[in-house]
Amino acid sequence: MAPRGAATHTEEDGMGRRRELRARWQELRERTRPVHPETERALAERWAALPDHVRTPAQSLGRHAVGCEGTHGVFPKCNLTCTPCYHSADANKVRIDGGHTLGEVTRQMAYLRERRGPYAHAQLIGGEVSLLTPDDHAAALQAMRDAGRSPMSMTHGDFDPEYLRALVTGPDGALRFDRVSFAAHVDSLMRGRRGAVRPRSEAELNPFRERFVQMFRDLRAETGLRYYLAHNMTVTPANVGQVAETVREVIGMGYSMMSFQPAAHVGDERRWKESYTAVDADAVWTELEKGMGQPIAHQGVDFGDPRCNRLAFGFLLERRWHPFVDPEVPAETAARDAFFAHYGGIAFSNTPPALLLVKVLRAARHHPGDLRIALRWARSLLRRAGGVRRLARGARAGRLGLMTFEVHSFMDAADVGPAWELMQQGVEAGDPRIRATQERLAACTYSMAHPETGQLVPACAQHSVLDPVENAGLRKLLPLTPV
User: Which top-level group of life is the source organism from (predicted)?
Assistant: First the structure.
């Protein structure tokens, strides 16, 4: 018979193991929980704050996405000159300072993490991001990742392969990041690009667009780096007639998004060379469809106010674009509705595949009818795309890839200023034009963090109202010539 003390010790060991197993099981349950509770809270708050007119079945904001995020006041200086430029006149009089950038990025991301949950897409944006040293740039990206953000570096793309290599690899040559995202803004309204100081046409810039993608391809072949690339283009009366040809050329270069921004009267007034009211989202979309040689359906999924954002999510197969949701097909809109209702809060991006599968299965367990809905959607999509064999052939030949089209329309500062001021007072504008601006600001998909005031500020309000004051202060804090 074992001594009494030995039996007690054995019982305690058993209880300790059971407690450890229960703790591990609870940790696993939390890790595989389909939607993080903070994400649930942030999505519910965003949906509740949306104006009634954008709460449609197609609306993704507040159901699948909390919205995009961006930095401000981190590095306003740029080494190209754009007409127009959304930054104020003081932006280029502010010194690039890596310590300031990292401190501000960390502070802003921490507030976004607190307000909007553990995951969101965020842009490292200011003036030109490649004016940061590679190490400072990498540190800023890591700070965003540490706050649960999926960062995208916004650039004019006029930097060398050596800069990119130094950014993504450490002193030992190993990758710092397994994946990076960049958006290259390239258009003929920009002055000062090396090799195309004053471009006369969009076509003249195509070699530079291709060269940007090739830098990433070369590095992927050498290191295995994964990447996501977007192409941005400002559109004014001066270049709107060249959008279609630009689309035809860029579509096969290797970008996964083409985004167009009809110009607005915001930022440095010295750079306003013409009236921009003649070019709107409809005009740009018409040129996009002309360039693609097909209709581009965007009504299947909304992202905020359609007057601000028009997005079309889909894929290219042998240069023909197919939407993930055809708004005219009930089987596909039904799948969209089920997705938003039952899986919308799941973070599909940057979640390891095995973990994502478990999350989806846990959610699907409560909605067994969704399998039938998903199969109907898949059959419809495959029928439109030409069948599984065609998809497989396209994939093997490298002619299958994601492609998102977007038109993002900024608003004039003359409208945003009074609209934002009234919103801070809780007053609805009597002027229909200013009231419409208030509605668009309330449905904004792109926010910037102000922890000092406890606000998430729409990008148009940031650029129209806050940037001029902010950049004037930064000019004193970070003068070009330190004193």
Answer: Bacteria
Tens of pLDDT, residues 41-57: 999 999 999 999 999 99
Q: Token digits for 372?
A: 């039938």
pLDDT digits (tens, 9 = 90+) for 374-414: 999 999 999 999 999 999 999 999 999 999 999 999 999 99
Structurally, at CATH architecture level, domain 69-319+400-425+453-476 sits in Alpha-Beta Barrel (3.20)
Which residues are bridge partners to 446 per DSSP? Answer: 68
Contacts of 46 (CB under 8 A, 6+ apart): 61, 62, 66, 67
Domain residue extents for the chain: 69-319+400-425+453-476
Per residue in 353-381, pLDDT tens? 999 999 999 999 999 999 999 999 999 99
Distance of CA 363 to the CA centre of its chain: 26
User: Which residue in this structure is represented by tokens 């706050």?
Assistant: 147
First to last CA, the chain: 85
119, exposed or middle or buried, with CB in 10 Å at 0-12, 13-18, 19+? buried
Q: Choose among 255, 249, 261: nearest CA to 201.
A: 249
For 185, the 3-state DSSP assignment is strand
Lookup: tokens for 307:
């007057």
Q: Residue 179: beta bridge partners?
A: 226
- Spatial strand order of the sheet with 320-323 comes to 320-323, 309-317, 400-408, 257-262, 226-235, 179-185, 149-155, 120-124, 68-70, 446-450, 455-458
